């Protein structure tokens, strides 16, 4: 990711040199943890426990259920979302074309990274505060139409593919374009996003946002790892594994997780000394190399997972070509683990800088939020061993949770005779992802 400050590298604190163990030992330990977890699951977990969210969970505190279930709560969230969106537009239109403009931090850090952390803790945040949903609802009300319906029905076959395309458009701007921190480029991206969302919402209704809004899809997938769920109108505390199992096997789901996983892996790879030497010595432009590599990483992630899924046996009623989407929910914990490992310092340090700069959005010496004097502590800069350990744990835990989710789903899909050996292709893919992910993380 492009650094947003001259003093804070995006996420390069705590690499291989800072870890109190070697790369080889870290990879060996992580792979061993994954294999041992699989062995334990085969022995102790022989029936599906979370198929379709079978575990209902337990009721949340009554006061919290009342507050979040009240008619006023979603209205307040919509207002908060619109206020932040209007402030962001203000900084984008009137702010300076410099990295001190808080617009860049809001766009790349608060929106892209903070949304993931908030969704993992609180649930589908973007669905609740989305300004494009709010604007679409306002337009529908003025027109006397139903914002849920739109003009035509959203095609089922299209699924999440528009969201996958939108997510790729974002990571392309961030990682492979020539002007990721040029105010005009980012403003144009946002204008195209808002325009596409409003047109799609008017034509297809709110179903369009559920499938095509890249931020809503991303937020909603990560939200399945939160401990919250609203079922039949009641707020529940529920195992994230139970929530995760409710992700439907929608067309395009594999594309979404492939873009998220592959782009994060490329972000690490792009910071490695190998890649720096490659484009410095190449006869073609870095722009071309970055674009080819970004596409290759996303395609490789999707193809490896699809092949591993297709090699597993399945029931007669589940076509082999659809197996990948049935297992794709298990990649979400891996994505979250990599986001924590790769962007934690970015979110804390540059996110704090953005809060300070938001108090003076036009660079005129203002302090409208009272946060202009806030400064990052750079705590992880002074404790790199702690950060490096968190990185490894995030990756390993993400893969172990993924293995549990995939195993539980496999018990529902695999014939009885293949419920052990049938899972081996996916296990090999998970081992490859674990080893490759740690190698890239250490190389950055």
Automatic annotation (TrEMBL):
<feature type="transmembrane region" description="Helical">
    <location>
        <begin position="71"/>
        <end position="94"/>
    </location>
</feature>
<keyword id="KW-1133">Transmembrane helix</keyword>
<feature type="transmembrane region" description="Helical">
    <location>
        <begin position="253"/>
        <end position="276"/>
    </location>
</feature>
<feature type="transmembrane region" description="Helical">
    <location>
        <begin position="386"/>
        <end position="406"/>
    </location>
</feature>
<feature type="transmembrane region" description="Helical">
    <location>
        <begin position="25"/>
        <end position="45"/>
    </location>
</feature>
<feature type="transmembrane region" description="Helical">
    <location>
        <begin position="327"/>
        <end position="348"/>
    </location>
</feature>
<feature type="transmembrane region" description="Helical">
    <location>
        <begin position="106"/>
        <end position="126"/>
    </location>
</feature>
<feature type="transmembrane region" description="Helical">
    <location>
        <begin position="288"/>
        <end position="307"/>
    </location>
</feature>
<feature type="transmembrane region" description="Helical">
    <location>
        <begin position="157"/>
        <end position="176"/>
    </location>
</feature>
<feature type="transmembrane region" description="Helical">
    <location>
        <begin position="188"/>
        <end position="209"/>
    </location>
</feature>
<protein>
    <recommendedName>
        <fullName>Fenitrothion hydrolase</fullName>
    </recommendedName>
</protein>
<keyword id="KW-0472">Membrane</keyword>
<keyword id="KW-0812">Transmembrane</keyword>
<feature type="transmembrane region" description="Helical">
    <location>
        <begin position="426"/>
        <end position="443"/>
    </location>
</feature>
């Amino acid at each position: 990711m492009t650094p947003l400050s001259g003093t804070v590298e995006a996420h390069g604190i705590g690499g291989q040199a800072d870890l109190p163990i070697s790369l080889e030992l870290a990879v060996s330990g992580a792979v061993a943890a994954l294999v041992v977890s699989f062995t334990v699951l085969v022995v102790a977990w022989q029936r599906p426990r979370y198929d379709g969210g079978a575990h209902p969970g337990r009721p949340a505190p009554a006061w919290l259920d009342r507050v979040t279930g009240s008619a006023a709560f979603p209205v307040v969230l919509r207002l908060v979302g619109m206020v932040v969106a209007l402030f962001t537009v203000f900084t984008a239109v009137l702010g300076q074309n410099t990295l001190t403009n808080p617009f860049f931090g809001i766009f790349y850090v608060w929106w892209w990274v903070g949304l993931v952390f908030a969704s993992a803790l609180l649930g589908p945040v973007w669905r609740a505060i989305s300004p494009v949903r709010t604007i679409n609802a306002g337009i529908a009300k003025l027109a006397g139409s139903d914002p849920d319906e739109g003009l035509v029905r959203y095609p089922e076959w299209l699924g999440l593919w528009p969201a996958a395309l939108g997510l790729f458009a974002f990571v392309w701007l961030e990682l492979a374009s020539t002007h990721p921190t040029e105010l005009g480029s980012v403003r144009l991206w946002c204008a195209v996003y808002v325009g596409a969302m409003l047109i799609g919402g008017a034509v297809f209704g709110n179903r369009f946002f559920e499938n095509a809004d890249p931020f809503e899809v991303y937020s909603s997938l990560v939200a399945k790892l939160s401990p919250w769920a609203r079922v039949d109108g009641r707020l529940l505390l529920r195992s994230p594994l139970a929530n995760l199992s409710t992700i439907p096997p929608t067309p395009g789901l594999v594309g979404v997780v492939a873009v998220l996983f592959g782009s994060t892996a490329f972000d690490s790879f792009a910071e490695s000394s190998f890649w720096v030497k490659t484009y410095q010595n190449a006869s073609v432009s870095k722009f071309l190399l970055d674009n080819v590599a970004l596409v290759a990483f996303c395609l490789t992630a999707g193809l490896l997972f699809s092949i591993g899924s297709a090699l597993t046996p399945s029931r007669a009623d589940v076509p082999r070509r659809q197996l990948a989407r049935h297992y794709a929910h298990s990649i979400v914990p891996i994505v979250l683990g990599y986001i924590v490992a790769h962007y934690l310092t970015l979110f804390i340090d540059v996110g704090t800088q953005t809060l300070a700069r938001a108090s003076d959005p036009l660079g005129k010496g203002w302090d409208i939020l009272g946060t202009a004097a806030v400064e990052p502590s750079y705590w992880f800069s002074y404790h790199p061993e702690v950060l490096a350990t968190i990185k490894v744990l995030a990756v390993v835990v993400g893969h172990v949770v993924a293995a549990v989710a995939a195993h539980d789903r496999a018990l529902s899909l695999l014939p009885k005779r293949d419920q052990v050996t049938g899972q081996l292709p996916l296990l090999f893919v998970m081992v490859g992802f674990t080893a490759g992910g740690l190698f890239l993380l250490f190389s950055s």
